[in-house]
Protein backbone atom coordinates (compact mmCIF):
# COMPACT_ATOMS: atom_id res chain seq x y z
CA UNK A 1 0.00 0.00 0.00
CA UNK A 2 1.23 3.46 -0.88
CA UNK A 3 0.76 6.29 1.59
CA UNK A 4 -2.63 8.00 1.26
CA UNK A 5 -2.98 11.75 1.97
CA UNK A 6 -6.02 10.97 4.15
CA UNK A 7 -3.64 9.10 6.50
CA UNK A 8 -1.53 12.18 7.30
CA UNK A 9 -3.38 13.38 10.38
CA UNK A 10 -3.66 9.88 11.83
CA UNK A 11 0.09 9.33 11.49
CA UNK A 12 0.99 12.70 12.99
CA UNK A 13 -1.51 12.30 15.80
CA UNK A 14 0.25 9.06 16.71
CA UNK A 15 3.55 10.93 16.76
CA UNK A 16 2.00 13.39 19.17
CA UNK A 17 0.65 10.53 21.27
CA UNK A 18 4.00 8.78 21.62
CA UNK A 19 5.78 12.06 22.36
CA UNK A 20 3.21 12.69 25.10
CA UNK A 21 4.05 9.37 26.71
CA UNK A 22 7.48 10.79 27.59
CA UNK A 23 7.36 14.59 27.33
CA UNK A 24 5.17 16.82 29.50
CA UNK A 25 5.89 20.05 27.62
CA UNK A 26 3.27 20.85 24.94
CA UNK A 27 5.78 22.99 23.04
CA UNK A 28 8.29 20.12 22.92
CA UNK A 29 5.57 17.72 21.74
CA UNK A 30 4.59 20.14 19.00
CA UNK A 31 8.23 20.45 17.94
CA UNK A 32 8.41 16.66 17.54
CA UNK A 33 5.22 16.70 15.51
CA UNK A 34 6.50 19.48 13.21
CA UNK A 35 9.76 17.64 12.56
CA UNK A 36 7.89 14.42 11.83
CA UNK A 37 5.57 16.31 9.48
CA UNK A 38 8.60 17.57 7.55
CA UNK A 39 9.91 14.00 7.14
CA UNK A 40 6.47 12.89 5.96
CA UNK A 41 6.20 15.75 3.46
CA UNK A 42 9.64 14.97 2.00
CA UNK A 43 8.88 11.25 1.77
CA UNK A 44 5.61 11.80 -0.05
CA UNK A 45 7.61 13.13 -2.99
CA UNK A 46 8.47 9.52 -3.85
CA UNK A 47 5.21 7.75 -4.73
CA UNK A 48 6.97 4.38 -4.90
CA UNK A 49 7.69 4.27 -1.15
CA UNK A 50 5.26 1.93 0.67
CA UNK A 51 3.25 3.46 3.49
CA UNK A 52 4.92 1.46 6.31
CA UNK A 53 8.39 2.46 5.10
CA UNK A 54 7.43 6.12 5.13
CA UNK A 55 5.68 5.80 8.49
CA UNK A 56 8.78 4.08 9.89
CA UNK A 57 10.92 7.04 8.84
CA UNK A 58 8.47 9.43 10.51
CA UNK A 59 8.55 7.49 13.78
CA UNK A 60 12.35 7.20 13.73
CA UNK A 61 12.51 10.99 13.51
CA UNK A 62 10.10 11.30 16.42
CA UNK A 63 12.00 8.79 18.57
CA UNK A 64 15.28 10.61 18.01
CA UNK A 65 13.74 13.87 19.28
CA UNK A 66 11.86 12.23 22.15
CA UNK A 67 15.19 10.77 23.25
CA UNK A 68 13.80 7.43 24.46
CA UNK A 69 14.37 4.10 22.74
CA UNK A 70 10.93 2.74 23.61
CA UNK A 71 8.35 5.34 24.71
CA UNK A 72 5.63 2.68 24.76
CA UNK A 73 7.56 0.36 27.09
CA UNK A 74 5.43 0.75 30.22
CA UNK A 75 2.22 0.58 28.19
CA UNK A 76 3.40 -2.57 26.39
CA UNK A 77 4.16 -4.32 29.66
CA UNK A 78 0.75 -3.36 31.03
CA UNK A 79 -0.94 -4.59 27.85
CA UNK A 80 0.75 -7.97 28.23
CA UNK A 81 -0.26 -8.19 31.90
CA UNK A 82 -3.87 -7.29 31.07
CA UNK A 83 -3.96 -9.80 28.23
CA UNK A 84 -2.55 -12.59 30.40
CA UNK A 85 -5.42 -12.08 32.82
CA UNK A 86 -7.96 -11.96 29.98
CA UNK A 87 -6.82 -15.18 28.30
CA UNK A 88 -7.27 -17.08 31.57
CA UNK A 89 -10.96 -16.30 31.26
CA UNK A 90 -11.49 -16.81 27.53
CA UNK A 91 -9.15 -19.71 26.71
CA UNK A 92 -11.40 -22.47 28.13
CA UNK A 93 -14.12 -21.56 25.61
CA UNK A 94 -11.86 -21.82 22.55
CA UNK A 95 -12.15 -25.14 20.73
CA UNK A 96 -11.93 -24.83 16.95
CA UNK A 97 -9.39 -23.23 14.62
CA UNK A 98 -11.96 -20.51 13.92
CA UNK A 99 -12.31 -19.84 17.66
CA UNK A 100 -8.56 -19.36 18.10
CA UNK A 101 -8.28 -17.17 15.00
CA UNK A 102 -11.21 -15.00 16.13
CA UNK A 103 -9.63 -14.57 19.57
CA UNK A 104 -6.31 -13.59 17.96
CA UNK A 105 -8.08 -11.04 15.76
CA UNK A 106 -9.90 -9.55 18.75
CA UNK A 107 -6.51 -9.30 20.45
CA UNK A 108 -5.46 -6.99 17.60
CA UNK A 109 -7.62 -4.29 19.19
CA UNK A 110 -4.85 -3.68 21.78
CA UNK A 111 -3.55 -0.76 19.69
CA UNK A 112 -2.95 2.64 21.25
CA UNK A 113 -2.60 5.96 19.46
CA UNK A 114 -4.59 5.11 16.32
CA UNK A 115 -6.69 8.21 15.75
CA UNK A 116 -9.91 6.49 14.68
CA UNK A 117 -9.63 3.50 17.03
CA UNK A 118 -10.56 3.46 20.72
CA UNK A 119 -9.05 0.79 22.97
CA UNK A 120 -11.68 -0.65 25.29
CA UNK A 121 -11.22 -0.29 29.03
CA UNK A 122 -13.07 -3.55 29.67
CA UNK A 123 -11.63 -6.13 27.31
CA UNK A 124 -13.51 -9.10 28.76
CA UNK A 125 -16.89 -7.43 28.18
CA UNK A 126 -15.74 -6.40 24.71
CA UNK A 127 -14.63 -9.96 23.97
CA UNK A 128 -17.91 -11.43 25.25
CA UNK A 129 -19.85 -9.10 22.95
CA UNK A 130 -17.68 -9.37 19.85
CA UNK A 131 -16.63 -13.03 19.85
CA UNK A 132 -20.13 -14.41 19.04
CA UNK A 133 -20.37 -12.03 16.07
CA UNK A 134 -17.54 -13.88 14.34
CA UNK A 135 -15.54 -12.47 11.45
CA UNK A 136 -16.73 -10.15 8.69
CA UNK A 137 -14.42 -12.01 6.31
CA UNK A 138 -13.91 -15.60 7.40
CA UNK A 139 -11.49 -17.59 5.25
CA UNK A 140 -10.55 -19.94 8.09
CA UNK A 141 -11.79 -23.02 6.20
CA UNK A 142 -9.37 -22.18 3.38
CA UNK A 143 -6.55 -21.18 5.72
CA UNK A 144 -6.48 -24.30 7.90
CA UNK A 145 -5.38 -26.77 5.18
CA UNK A 146 -2.36 -24.53 4.51
CA UNK A 147 -1.22 -24.64 8.15
CA UNK A 148 1.74 -26.96 7.70
CA UNK A 149 4.88 -24.78 7.68
CA UNK A 150 3.92 -21.31 8.89
CA UNK A 151 5.68 -17.96 9.19
CA UNK A 152 3.70 -15.95 11.76
CA UNK A 153 4.23 -12.16 11.78
CA UNK A 154 3.10 -10.70 15.11
CA UNK A 155 1.95 -7.16 15.77
CA UNK A 156 1.13 -5.51 19.11
CA UNK A 157 1.88 -6.31 22.72
CA UNK A 158 -1.20 -7.58 24.53
CA UNK A 159 -2.31 -9.06 21.22
CA UNK A 160 0.71 -11.34 21.21
CA UNK A 161 -0.70 -13.13 24.28
CA UNK A 162 -3.72 -14.14 22.17
CA UNK A 163 -1.35 -15.12 19.37
CA UNK A 164 0.23 -17.49 21.86
CA UNK A 165 -3.07 -19.36 22.17
CA UNK A 166 -3.29 -19.74 18.40
CA UNK A 167 0.34 -20.80 18.17
CA UNK A 168 -0.23 -23.57 20.72
CA UNK A 169 -3.24 -24.76 18.73
CA UNK A 170 -1.24 -24.81 15.49
CA UNK A 171 1.61 -26.74 17.12
CA UNK A 172 -0.86 -29.25 18.56
CA UNK A 173 -2.13 -29.83 15.02
CA UNK A 174 1.41 -30.69 13.90
CA UNK A 175 2.37 -27.41 12.20
CA UNK A 176 5.92 -26.06 12.09
CA UNK A 177 5.90 -22.37 13.09
CA UNK A 178 8.39 -19.54 12.78
CA UNK A 179 7.33 -16.53 14.86
CA UNK A 180 8.46 -13.08 13.74
CA UNK A 181 8.59 -9.97 15.96
CA UNK A 182 9.92 -6.45 15.30
CA UNK A 183 13.68 -6.06 15.06
CA UNK A 184 13.66 -2.94 17.29
CA UNK A 185 11.06 -1.13 19.40
CA UNK A 186 8.52 0.80 17.37
CA UNK A 187 5.06 1.81 18.56
CA UNK A 188 3.52 -0.83 20.84
CA UNK A 189 4.68 -3.71 18.62
CA UNK A 190 6.13 -6.85 20.17
CA UNK A 191 9.90 -7.33 20.13
CA UNK A 192 12.18 -10.27 20.91
CA UNK A 193 12.14 -9.29 24.57
CA UNK A 194 8.37 -9.70 24.65
CA UNK A 195 8.50 -13.00 22.79
CA UNK A 196 11.03 -14.47 25.19
CA UNK A 197 9.27 -13.12 28.28
CA UNK A 198 6.05 -14.80 27.14
CA UNK A 199 7.84 -18.05 26.32
CA UNK A 200 7.12 -18.07 22.60
CA UNK A 201 10.53 -19.65 22.03
CA UNK A 202 9.27 -22.71 23.95
CA UNK A 203 6.17 -22.96 21.72
CA UNK A 204 7.39 -22.07 18.24
CA UNK A 205 10.06 -23.93 16.31
CA UNK A 206 11.96 -20.69 15.79
CA UNK A 207 11.62 -17.02 16.74
CA UNK A 208 13.19 -14.30 14.61
CA UNK A 209 12.78 -10.62 13.72
CA UNK A 210 11.58 -8.50 10.80
CA UNK A 211 14.92 -6.69 10.55
CA UNK A 212 18.54 -7.05 11.67
CA UNK A 213 17.95 -4.35 14.28
CA UNK A 214 16.51 -1.51 12.22
CA UNK A 215 13.45 0.30 13.59
CA UNK A 216 10.86 -0.46 10.89
CA UNK A 217 7.11 -0.91 10.64
CA UNK A 218 5.55 -3.77 8.72
CA UNK A 219 7.83 -5.96 6.65
CA UNK A 220 10.51 -4.72 4.26
CA UNK A 221 11.93 -7.75 2.46
CA UNK A 222 15.17 -5.90 1.70
CA UNK A 223 15.91 -5.73 5.45
CA UNK A 224 14.92 -9.19 6.68
CA UNK A 225 17.54 -11.47 8.27
CA UNK A 226 18.71 -14.62 6.53
CA UNK A 227 16.79 -17.02 8.78
CA UNK A 228 13.51 -15.27 7.97
CA UNK A 229 14.30 -15.31 4.25
CA UNK A 230 14.87 -19.07 4.43
CA UNK A 231 11.66 -19.61 6.40
CA UNK A 232 9.63 -17.64 3.86
CA UNK A 233 11.16 -19.56 0.97
CA UNK A 234 9.96 -22.90 2.29
CA UNK A 235 6.69 -22.06 4.05
CA UNK A 236 3.19 -23.17 3.10
CA UNK A 237 1.50 -20.14 4.69
CA UNK A 238 2.25 -16.70 6.10
CA UNK A 239 0.02 -15.44 8.90
CA UNK A 240 0.25 -11.65 9.22
CA UNK A 241 -1.32 -9.81 12.12
CA UNK A 242 -2.48 -6.20 11.96
CA UNK A 243 -2.74 -3.36 9.48
CA UNK A 244 0.94 -2.43 9.15
CA UNK A 245 1.79 -5.97 8.05
CA UNK A 246 -1.16 -5.87 5.65
CA UNK A 247 0.00 -2.54 4.20
CA UNK A 248 3.52 -3.90 3.74
CA UNK A 249 2.92 -7.41 2.44
CA UNK A 250 0.28 -6.44 -0.11
CA UNK A 251 3.12 -4.66 -1.92
CA UNK A 252 4.63 -8.01 -2.89
CA UNK A 253 3.24 -10.18 -5.70
CA UNK A 254 5.67 -13.10 -5.58
CA UNK A 255 4.90 -14.16 -2.03
CA UNK A 256 3.54 -17.25 -0.26
CA UNK A 257 -0.20 -17.55 0.50
CA UNK A 258 -0.92 -15.07 3.28
CA UNK A 259 -3.65 -15.01 5.91
CA UNK A 260 -4.23 -11.45 7.11
CA UNK A 261 -5.73 -11.45 10.61
CA UNK A 262 -6.73 -7.99 11.80
CA UNK A 263 -9.24 -5.59 13.19
CA UNK A 264 -9.86 -2.93 10.52
CA UNK A 265 -9.27 0.34 12.36
CA UNK A 266 -9.40 2.99 9.63
CA UNK A 267 -11.38 3.92 6.54
CA UNK A 268 -8.39 3.52 4.21
CA UNK A 269 -7.88 -0.17 5.03
CA UNK A 270 -11.63 -0.71 5.20
CA UNK A 271 -11.90 0.50 1.62
CA UNK A 272 -9.06 -1.72 0.45
CA UNK A 273 -10.50 -4.82 2.12
CA UNK A 274 -14.12 -4.03 1.28
CA UNK A 275 -15.58 -4.05 4.81
CA UNK A 276 -16.84 -1.38 7.23
CA UNK A 277 -14.35 0.15 9.65
CA UNK A 278 -14.30 -1.87 12.85
CA UNK A 279 -14.69 -5.21 11.08
CA UNK A 280 -12.68 -8.25 12.16
CA UNK A 281 -11.25 -10.28 9.30
CA UNK A 282 -9.30 -13.44 8.48
CA UNK A 283 -8.54 -12.84 4.83
CA UNK A 284 -6.56 -15.29 2.70
CA UNK A 285 -4.58 -13.88 -0.20
CA UNK A 286 -3.30 -16.78 -2.28
Characteristic terms for this protein:
12 helices, Helicase, Ruva Protein, domain 3, 2 domains, 7-stranded mixed sheet, 12% strand
Describe the structure.
The protein has 2 domains: about 60 residues, Helicase, Ruva Protein, domain 3, CATH 1.10.8; about 210 residues, Uncharacterised protein PF01937, DUF89, domain 3 (Rossmann fold), CATH 3.40.50. It is built from 12 helices and 7 strands. The protein has a 7-stranded mixed sheet, with helices on both faces. The protein has about 290 residues and is an alpha/beta fold. α11 links the parallel β5 and β6. It is globular and about 50 Å long. The longest helix has 18 residues.
